[in-house]
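Lab meeting, item 3. Inverse folding demo.
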């Protein structure tokens, strides 16, 4: 079950873009938004075949879908994606900045290129896509920006200094967007997943430590991508209109704010 059956078509007529939208959390968010009636643009850097598969799943829900391959760290590629999205749909209402690299490396062995690579995808990517689409959102007087954070920026994590730093930065970026664009009808929030189960790539960093020990959510299970998607859907719907500049934790009590 990938969509929220209670959502109805509350996002009908809206257009959403999900970066890193082909696997796990990104895919679940894309399908949840489509299930609520939004047309969805799937972005990935490569993974064309997987992106097309998600696109077909979305179209089967009776809404429009589009795949656009682009490196979100490349200004020219993001500008081209903006042009293509606006040419096809004429608007963008929801931007989900999910693209990320979750590599692991000991700090003393981490190269500057590795450090910058992770920060570039997470922070530069969110900056470039937000900068590209915010004028359209502000012009139409409505928009929802959802940035995907990470619990390691709150708990710390061995071998993930670059990821924790980038995810902490995305929360500050979210608050800045919320303040700057509040008078334009645009909200910005950060959804912070905890330990989300399921298959990851070998370099993604499946586990992390909390206070030196392997952490377990107090609800007794790992999270699912659909749990994160449900929070994103809430923030994008009518119930989320009075929420902005916030970090919303979806972690089953793994980390208590």
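The presenter then showed the designed sequence:
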């Amino acid at each position: 079950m990938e969509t929220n059956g209670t959502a109805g078509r509350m996002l009908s007529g809206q257009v959403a873009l999900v970066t890193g939208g082909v696997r796990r959390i990104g895919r679940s968010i894309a399908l949840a938004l489509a299930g609520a009636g939004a047309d969805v643009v799937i972005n990935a850097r490569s993974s064309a075949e997987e992106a097309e598969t998600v696109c077909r799943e979305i179209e089967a829900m009776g809404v429009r879908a589009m795949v656009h391959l682009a490196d979100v760290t490349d200004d020219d590629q993001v500008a081209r994606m903006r042009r293509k999205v606006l040419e096809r749909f004429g608007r963008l209402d929801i931007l989900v900045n999910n693209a990320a690299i979750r590599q692991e490396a000991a700090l003393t062995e981490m190269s500057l290129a590795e450090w910058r690579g992770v920060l570039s995808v997470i922070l530069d990517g969110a900056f470039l896509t937000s900068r590209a689409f915010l004028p359209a959102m502000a012009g139409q007087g409505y928009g929802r920006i959802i940035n995907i954070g990470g619990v390691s920026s709150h708990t710390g994590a061995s071998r993930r200094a670059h990821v924790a730093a980038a995810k902490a930065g995305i929360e500050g970026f979210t608050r800045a967007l919320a303040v700057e664009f509040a008078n334009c009808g645009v909200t910005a929030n950060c959804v912070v997943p905890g330990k989300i189960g399921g298959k990851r790539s070998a370099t993604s960093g499946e586990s992390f430590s909390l206070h030196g020990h392997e952490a377990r959510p107090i609800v007794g299970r790992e999270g699912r991508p659909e749990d994160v998607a449900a929070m994103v859907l809430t923030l994008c719907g009518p119930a989320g209109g009075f929420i902005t500049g916030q970090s919303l934790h979806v972690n089953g009590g793994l980390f208590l704010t």
